[in-house]
Amino acid sequence: MDVILIGFMGAGKTTVGHLLAEKVGQPLLDTDQLITERTNQTPGEIFADIGEAGFRDLEHTILGEAITESGVIATGGGIIELSKNQQLLSEVTVPVIYLSGSFGQTMERLVKDNSRPIVRNKSLLELAELWEARLPKYAAIATQTVYTDNKSANQVAEEIINYVKGIADGTVKDW
Ligand code: S3P
């Protein structure tokens, strides 16, 4: 099952992606992880070394490669920052699922993890501004929005599977 997960940091893309990949027996292509495998550096280290722009270049290359492969693709929350990535994602022929949660529940997950450079360097107000700026971009690219509030990763994964199966058997109208 080929599917691409997008959404803000802390939306659960990686967790849900792992579950989905396991359930459907496909590889998980996690762009952050692929970047780390390629560079031997975490996103935090890359941001510190070559800045966000350098990270975004790498992310673009990795996304371009991942979409040519079969599997579950979990993207980084900033994938929509480059218009060339927006372009790539709007041209793919596989479902692009936007994992959407409330600001409150997303922030709750984010503050528990100090590894994200974007979160480390921003105040809550700045994160709220980033949230406001990014949300319409995810929504514009997604073929389907899945709401995640008060749901387990397993429930979200099952919803995605049902949606993708629905497209395959014609019970859900494709976009
Ligand atoms: C980023 C999100 C991160 C990672 C990097 C930048 C962002 O991925 O790609 O730290 O700009 O939102 P997650 O969405 O998996 O946290």
From TrEMBL:
GO CC annotation, single: cytosol
Pathway connected to this protein: Metabolic intermediate biosynthesis; chorismate biosynthesis; chorismate from D-erythrose 4-phosphate and phosphoenolpyruvate: step 5/7
Positions annotated to bind substrate: D32, R56, G77, R134
Family annotation (InterPro entries): P-loop_NTPase (IPR027417), Shikimate/glucono_kinase (IPR031322), Shikimate_kinase/TSH1 (IPR000623), Shikimate_kinase_CS (IPR023000)
Keywords recorded for this protein, A-Z: Amino-acid biosynthesis, Aromatic amino acid biosynthesis, ATP-binding, Cytoplasm, Kinase, Magnesium, Metal-binding, Nucleotide-binding, Transferase
PROSITE patterns: SHIKIMATE_KINASE
The protein's required cofactors: Mg(2+)
One Pfam match: SKI
Source organism superkingdom: Bacteria
UniProt: ATP binding residues: G10, A11, G12, K13, T14, T15, R116
Cofactor: binding details: Binds 1 Mg(2+) ion per subunit.
One GO term (biological process): chorismate biosynthetic process
Listed GO MF terms: ATP binding; magnesium ion binding; shikimate kinase activity
UniProt feature coiled coil, ranges: none
Reaction equations catalysed: shikimate + ATP = 3-phosphoshikimate + ADP + H(+)
Residues reported in the UniProt entry to bind Mg(2+): T14
Compartment annotation: Cytoplasm
UniProt xrefs under PANTHER family: SHIKIMATE KINASE, SHIKIMATE KINASE 1, CHLOROPLASTIC
Family classification: Belongs to the shikimate kinase family.
Task performed by this protein: Catalyzes the specific phosphorylation of the 3-hydroxyl group of shikimic acid using ATP as a cosubstrate.
Subunit text: Monomer.
HAMAP family associated with the record: Shikimate_kinase
Protein name (Swiss-Prot/TrEMBL): Shikimate kinase
Organism: Weissella bombi
Taxonomic path: Bacteria, Bacillati, Bacillota, Bacilli, Lactobacillales
Protein encoded by which gene: aroK
